[in-house]
Write a sequence for this structure.
């Protein structure tokens, strides 16, 4: 796929359109916005969607030539049509531009299509495919994928998105197509900046110097998006053929549970990305020269690969039983994703690294365990519908000139993240444990008619009992963090914090708009899966949440909505 870069750094980029027939990028004349959804018509119906140039907030003009304009006439209209939890307009435009540049994922002639990506070798093939797609670009030629990614992302306007969580949202069109490509693109620091330099310390730990996305969260965020694409392929098959082939209906509860697990992992990752990062106290290497991803980053680095390994195994079973072998698109996506796990640091070795770091931090975290439930408004990181709070100017400058920036020390460590007294240790662990207590407290005051809320509160209370039982052994776990017992404690504590993140995100989304994320079904199913992994028996009879969760998943794949917490509408 040829990528047309901006004519000059000072000039606005031309409007871009992708031809669904070939996946190429070309200049497009201005056209008015449609009132329809973003899902593109079949390739025979239109020549391709178009978006406004980078830096424009909205577009206007005349419709012609079969090109569909996506930018709305009202600045907020586009973002609100883009997702149930809308991002800032600039983020929505950047994501749409990137998706147009990537082209039709169903066109095998497009180097960024799913068939082309899945046919390449697991790790090395990603860079080769990306290089062939950008070989015609005048900027970045001969620099490999890292250099050419800058051309692609600059044309999409990603350099204007500096907050870590919003950067991940804007990158999601690339993240959900290929884990290796998405992970490489996540290291890009911005226009005019070289690719993020990698500083590696212990195995499984590395820090991108110039990227606003913390190293601990880049892999989990990319994995969540890529796993969502495999889930969509499996759900499309079961939902499309389930009425004619009743045997496929047995997989509906399995896919519903996978959907709930995916939402739980993304909830934790989003909260961690929205958590303000500590600025570096001073430049240069040294014991205090870094700003870590904190407790939430370590929990995500361990929990997300561990939980999604089970999800991918289930999806592989469903695809195989539906006749989608390795040669099919769905089977090829799963095989490619599995092969790319080590490259992104989200394999078993990467998860074990973060598990060991959590084990070392358990004594300090257990000492700060709260005795009361969280009260008052939920902290901003859990309110995914709100824009991220900007970091103070001094913090941005100290963190490398970008909001959410991170500067590692000379060994690639993140000194402030998990050590006693480090940034965010007490705040994160206290809030998460307090949310678990708050969810358990609601079991006593739940309305008897609301069986879902009552069941969710009862399950939270059961998990709180497990949290209390862990307090004493966690206080002595740091004596030998490599011991099997210490790692087992870290595993159980991380799963309980995942449950707390689910409760916090669900409560924040329950704002009266009737959002699926604010309902109880997905949270109840996610917490049931966490309880099963902990070996904690479920409380008394409760409504089965798998039927409504499957209904939501099937409805999303039919309407072209992503399997993410934001309910993002897909362009293709």
């Amino acid at each position: 796929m040829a990528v047309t870069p901006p004519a000059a750094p000072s000039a606005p980029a031309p409007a871009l359109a992708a031809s669904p027939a070939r996946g190429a990028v070309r200049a497009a004349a201005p056209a008015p916005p449609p009132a329809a959804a973003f899902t593109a018509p079949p390739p025979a119906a239109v020549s391709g969607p178009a978006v406004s140039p980078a830096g424009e907030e909205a577009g206007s003009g005349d419709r012609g030539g079969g090109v569909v304009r996506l930018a709305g006439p009202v600045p907020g209209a586009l973002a609100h049509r883009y997702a149930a939890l809308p991002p800032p307009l600039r983020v929505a435009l950047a994501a749409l531009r990137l998706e147009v540049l990537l082209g039709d994922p169903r066109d095998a002639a497009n180097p960024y299509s799913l068939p082309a990506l899945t046919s390449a070798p697991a790790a090395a093939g990603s860079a080769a495919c990306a290089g062939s797609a950008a070989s015609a670009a005048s900027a970045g030629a001969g620099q490999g994928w890292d250099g050419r990614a800058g051309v692609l992302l600059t044309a999409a306007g990603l350099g204007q998105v500096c907050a870590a969580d919003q950067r991940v949202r804007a990158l999601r069109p690339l993240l959900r197509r290929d884990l290796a490509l998405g992970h490489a693109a996540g290291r890009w620091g911005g226009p005019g900046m070289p690719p993020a330099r990698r500083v590696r310390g212990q195995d499984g730990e590395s820090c991108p110097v110039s990227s606003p996305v913390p190293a601990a969260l880049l892999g989990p965020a990319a994995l969540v998006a890529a796993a969502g694409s495999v889930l969509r392929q499996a759900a499309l098959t079961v939902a499309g053929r389930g009425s004619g082939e009743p045997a496929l209906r047995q997989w509906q509860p399995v896919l519903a549970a996978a959907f709930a697990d995916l939402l739980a992992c993304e909830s934790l990752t989003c909260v961690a990305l929205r958590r303000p990062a500590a600025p570096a106290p001073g430049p240069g290497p040294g014991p205090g020269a870094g700003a870590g991803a904190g407790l939430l980053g370590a929990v995500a680095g361990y929990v997300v690969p561990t939980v999604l390994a089970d999800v991918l195994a289930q999806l592989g079973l469903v695809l195989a039983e539906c006749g989608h072998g390795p040669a099919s698109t769905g089977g090829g996506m799963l095989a490619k994703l599995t092969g790319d796990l080590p490259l992104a640091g989200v394999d078993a070795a990467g998860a074990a690294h973060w598990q060991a770091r959590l084990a070392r931090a358990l004594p300090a975290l257990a000492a700060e365990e709260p005795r009361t439930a969280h009260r008052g408004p939920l902290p901003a990181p859990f309110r995914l519908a709100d824009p991220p709070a900007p970091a103070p100017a001094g913090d941005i400058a100290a963190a490398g000139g970008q909001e959410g920036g991170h500067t590692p020390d000379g060994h690639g460590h993140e000194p402030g993240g998990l050590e006693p007294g480090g940034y965010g240790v007490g705040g994160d662990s206290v809030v998460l444990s307090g949310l678990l207590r708050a969810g358990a407290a609601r079991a006593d005051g739940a309305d008897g008619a609301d069986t879902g809320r009552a069941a969710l509160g009862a399950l939270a209370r059961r998990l709180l009992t497990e949290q209390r039982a862990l307090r004493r052994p966690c206080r002595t776990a740091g004596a030998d963090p490599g011991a099997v017992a210490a790692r087992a404690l870290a595993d159980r504590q991380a799963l309980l914090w995942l449950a707390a993140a689910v409760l916090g995100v669900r409560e924040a989304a329950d704002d009266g708009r009737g959002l699926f994320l604010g309902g109880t079904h997905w949270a109840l199913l996610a917490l049931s899966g966490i309880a099963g992994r902990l070996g904690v028996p479920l409380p008394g009879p409760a409504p089965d949440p798998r039927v409504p969760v499957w209904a939501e998943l099937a409805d999303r794949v039919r309407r072209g909505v992503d399997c993410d917490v934001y309910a993002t509408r897909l362009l293709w």
The two ends are 17 Å apart (CA to CA). The CA atoms of residues 165 and 270 lie 6 Å apart.
